[in-house]
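Let's study my pick:
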Amino acid sequence: MTTVELTRFHVVPEQVERLLAARPAMLADFRTDRSGFLDAHLVRLPGDQWLDIVRWRTSEDFATSRAKGANLPGIRAFFAAIDHVVSAEEGTAVEDEE
């Protein structure tokens, strides 16, 4: 089963364009640098909050990615647009996409 990372964060309105502009480079960095990265879906929520749903092959892949932090420019630019993290959770998908 796939590991799912759920990160809810707050972005001030003035930083939304910066966040969205940085997203493609962040995803490209994840694809090249993060073993086990499967895909990610960004969801806009009410109250200037966002939810990033990231799927990893294993929990170990997710832990390794987390330890790397914002080690590449695309990832760093995306994280820089975030005001603060509201919550971060890890779960297991019971229905994997085929």
Summary: Helices lie at 16-33, 59-68, 73-80. The chain has a mean pLDDT of 96.
